[in-house]
Amino acid sequence: MSRVASIDCGTNSIRLLVADLPADGIGDLTDIDRRMEIVRLGQGVDRTGRLAPEAIERTRVALDRYAGRIRELGAERVRMVATSATRDASNAGEFRDMVRATLGVPPEVITGRQEAELSFTGAVRGLPVGGYVVVDIGGGSTEFVAGTTTVESAISVDIGCVRMTERHLSGNPPTPEQIEAATADIETAVDKALSVVGGMGDATLVGVAGTVTTIAAITLGLSEYQPERIHHSRMSTADIERVVADLLAMTYEQRSALPVMHPGRADVIGAGGLILRTILNRAGVTELVASEHDILDGIAWSLA
């Protein structure tokens, strides 16, 4: 076994996984520590094109805690990737300098294609051999990737829960007009993505990341967030549409009161749900498999 640490820094959250990899590369990761903090690194990036100083500082504070935990647990190798917000920001160099000073290694600002491939690796490992389309709904972008045991096609499109909230859904709750405008924006991007991955065919749709897993928790009626119940659970399109409609009709305060809702997700979950609902409808599928394993696991496996 070798112990590795992976960090995924997205538009909304920064996450850490410290895990032991099997020596022969066969089998599962053994989680040692898995944690997430909402830092909203992509605050305002869609509007300004720059990372806000306070967002960089929030990320630094969380990353400093992660660096201490990595040292404490004795990880031999560390890989940190940064995704949509840092791809889009004109001052990404300030962010890279901060990471190098705090963590001791530079972040890799990966492309949307690389992000999709890592998400696919993490999501499908442990599932039966077959055809899959994995969707990773992030804060700034959403990745679509199709394949079997390896990636066959992938695309990243600039729709994410933070980006769509800031661009369209300012109401509390959002107005029908705001929802309609967001939906039109999302549909254009989803149709483009599905044309690249070749549609669904006989493939199984797998959803990863916080929007999907939170909606799964609500659909399952959980009184607290339980990853083991959510992982590989199946949700019908009808159930997801019902939950998303409820979320969009709620105020921020009502969403925050849901027992499975992370405090940093309550203001953007409506937009995330709208993206998910649109994907299901445009893809013409009746079911979604939720996965707790995603890009974070793919980063860890890349260190094998």
UniProtKB/TrEMBL annotation:
The keyword Hydrolase is annotated on this UniProt entry: yes
Concerning Gene3D superfamilies, the annotation shows: 3.30.420.40, Exopolyphosphatase. Domain 2
Classification via InterPro entries: ATPase_NBD, GppA/Ppx_hydrolase, Ppx_GppA_N
Q: Does the keyword 4Fe-4S apply?
A: no
Q: Please list the residue ranges annotated as the Ppx/GppA phosphatase N-terminal domain.
A: 28-281
- Provide the alphabetized UniProt keywords: Hydrolase
The family database entries (CDD domains) matched by this protein are listed as: ASKHA_NBD_MtPPX2-like
Q: Which GO terms describe its molecular function?
A: pyrophosphatase activity
Protein name (record): Hydrolase
Annotated organism of origin: Rugosimonospora africana
